[in-house]
Amino acid sequence: MTGQFPVEQLRAIETPFYYYDMDVLRDTLHVLLHEASDSRWNVHYALKACATDEILRAIAASGVGADCVSGGEVKAALSAGFPPEQIVFAGVAKTDAEIRFALEQGILCFNVESVEELEVISQIAHSMGIVARVCLRVNPNVDAHTHAKITTGLKENKFGIPMSMLSRAVRLCYRSSNIDFMGLHFHIGSQITDMEPFVELSARVNELVSQVEQLLCENAQGQTVQAQVKHINVGGGLGILYEHPNHFPIPNFKAYFDIWRAHICLREDQHLHFELGRSLVAQCGNLMTRVLYVKKGENKQFAIVDAGMNDLIRPALYGAFHRVENLTHPDAEEQLYDIVGPICESSDVFVEGYRIAQVRRGDLLAMRSAGAYGEIMASQYNLRRLPGHVTSDSLQVKR
């Protein structure tokens, strides 16, 4: 064994593939549930991070709910054992078929991203003779101070209802006999490691909940009622330490949840929801790859591996960093390499000028912290086979 890896067993498997350490996942879920033990709190796992069957089943078994952004994710959540009453469905472009399917399954609610979507859900629910439960996703214009490509809570982003349109959207909910207004939903971005944006979001949430609950609305029967916010969903976004997966395999859930305890004004009759993805699964996943060639250039030394940007696109897409470890020769003297893949794109580079234990042809490398937005984003670009995966519970490749 090297670290947490059963190296000899992994070396026998054709690369590239994802390896999931299920003990890391179980430990992460244990800490998560301990820190989020308030009876008014509800944690949902964001399936977009990773939808591998074994991962989904383990999370569902823990009692955590599901946050979905497509009909396919709703189906995967149900198949893995997530109860429909613990499933929330977000996304800016829900199709009519996806809305009907979710209504038929009796999910907890839709996180509605526009007035136009709200009107469509109302029409479809009316045609089905049922009531759709909704939370309105508000764009709070809070800067998450994270990568521009994964920021979602600013005015220029496509997500959520602008604050200036919120009152109208709430009144539309009450006017429809086929809409049950449950509350407000927020999500400001991903890979947030500075807690200050969550403090700022808390203040904005408190302000908007107060404003909404002062609204007088006309219901479907023509009666005047006061709006009520029964559910507040603050999304996810908690980041991980990509640089130190061995020392910090579990995110700082205590600091994260302490922010909400201290700053969200939550009544006894209100429920607070969280949608965590990356922080639950990133550190349990690793992309395993072999060195094909060590190529010496005029100014650089390249470790050319058999995994490419089609297997793990984050470095090419975001400039994201993943720690790389040589599992075959972990104690060799370190050298500098550009670690690159086989795809016919100059962007197919995992790390540049990276210091790692000297590699040789055939060495097995692990690209760490790849459980989130790794396998789920893989493609068959260049007609390459999808990577597949194994888990520590069963070292059998599944594709």
Quick summary of this structure?
Helix content is 28%, strand content 25%. It has 399 residues and is an alpha/beta fold.
Please provide the count of β strands: 20
CATH third-tier fold name of the largest domain: TIM Barrel
Average pLDDT works out at: 94
CATH architecture of the largest domain: Alpha-Beta Barrel
Helix content: 25-40%
Based on CA atoms alone, the radius of gyration comes out at 23 Å
CATH class of the largest domain: Alpha Beta
Category by helix and strand content: alpha/beta
Major sheet: 9 strands, mixed
**CA(first)-CA(last) distance:** 25 Å
Estimated share of beta-strand residues: 25-35%
Tally of domains:
2
CATH superfamily of the largest domain: Alanine racemase
Tell me, briefly, the overall form.
elongated
User: How many helical elements?
Assistant: 11
Task: Describe this protein's structure.
The chain is α/β, with parallel strands linked by helices and 399 residues long. The protein has 2 domains: 259 residues, TIM Barrel (Alpha-Beta Barrel), CATH 3.20.20.10; 116 residues, Lyase, Ornithine Decarboxylase, Chain A, domain 1 (Beta Barrel), CATH 2.40.37.10. It has 11 helices and 20 strands. The strands form 3 sheets. Strands 1, 13, 14, 15, 16, 17, 18, 19 and 20 form a 9-stranded mixed beta sheet that branches. Strands 2-3-4-5-6-8-11-12 form an 8-stranded parallel β-barrel. Strands 9-10 form a two-stranded antiparallel sheet. Helix 8 runs parallel beside helix 9. About 3% of the residues have low confidence.
